[in-house]
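User: quick one
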Amino acid sequence: MIKGIYHFGRYLLLLRSFFKSPERFSVYWNLVLEEMVSVGVGSIVIVIITSVFIGAVTTVQTAYQLVSGFIPRSAIGSVVAASALLELAPTITSLVLAGKVGSHIASQLGTMRVTEQIDAIEVMGINSVSYLIMPKVLGCILAFPILVTIAAFLIILGGIVAGDWTGQVTIADFTFGARGTFETFQVIFMFSKAITFGFLISSISAYQGFYVRGGALEVGQASTRAVVFSCILVLVADYVLAQLLL
Amino acid sequence: MSIEVKNIGKSFGENPVLNDINYLMEPGKVNMIIGMSGCGKSVLLKCIVGLLTPDTGEVLFDGQDFHRSHFKGQREIRKNIGMLFQASALFDSLTVEENVAFPLKMFTRNSPKEISDRVHFCLDRVNLRNVGHLLPSEISGGMKKRVGIARAIAMQPKYLFCDEPNSGLDPLTASVIDKLIYEITHEYKMTTVVVSHDMNSVTNIGDKIMFLSGKTKAWEGDRHSLMNSNHPGLNEFVFVSDFMKNKK
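Assistant: Done. Structure below.
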């Protein structure tokens, strides 16, 4: 318990140091763009594969459960589209990215720590937290909503294709159902989740990597911890946001 | 341009590492800190450059106390510091040229041409040519050290710190690095601080030497008095090999 409070306090102090004597804006601008490219472009393939299959599976399983003749087939479109926007796209994508991006951030910073690269930055008089971590956090906050939007689109597309191929629901019925229950707030909710999860995954992973002590083994352990804690906190935040905003 | 440490003490938990260290590091000289492994040399160096905060005492750069300065004051001092790390600490995702250019891009508003010229000058100064496009993983240990020195002098610092610059190098390459540190120190009148336990380095380039033992300063002098010292601990450390005994 005391250890948990200690880490939470240190995590808050790390976040505070983002704003302590930052470098020139132009330095950050380039770094944020690089991180966005790294997170966004680097994760697009896994997001595409995950999203298309999740959409397909959700459609088939929803169709399996809605066997009653009283429920129109368009309901499948409603359920899949709403689920995609409210839950599947932001949460599943973030869990996948927690594995990929989280471990990458933690291992990168951890390696820099154990090979004294962070010390080298600090000796030069550069605020290592704002230089190394802030661009990663901002990059994730900006890239996650884009990836989640792509994921939502592909989940629905995967659902449409799977529904049509299996004969469970026609394209017309699916889109009719999806449009019928669509609300703009669902998109706002999706973006809120994406931004929150992007922040949590990047900052928690950065915290784990930044304070590594030891060698290669400890870097690996920090990377694992980063993924585990990111996933847990994404799920907790998922519930908190649903409770607060819905 | 001098650096002075006064009454420095540092513990890690219940384990004291340094106790009441006083040492004046003079400009234009290679000031060496020597001692056995684990005696606190690197901890002292990290306290001086601000990577660790000492429990007691002060570190004065031209009379300005580093650890009592605000972040901006420390930053100004650090802009005048170049450091060569034990494992070189080059940024492994940047090329050799980008590594040397890094501090210039961060702290100056020089044009790309000016930065490029300075980078090539520094790489030439450490006798490195045609490796600018390579990554640190593609060059040898000795070359990494030289890139580290080039990066350290890129901003024309007043102070140069070297943490075991010869570790892991063959005697010939180690001698090249020593010579380079010595030449640069005298050429640019820098205050250079070298942590080492390599006796060849100490006897070749040490203008001023402090011997750490038992968590405190045990002896201080120059390389000539080192060979004639009567300090038992120092003699045990210096003349451990038959070669050094014969040299005496």
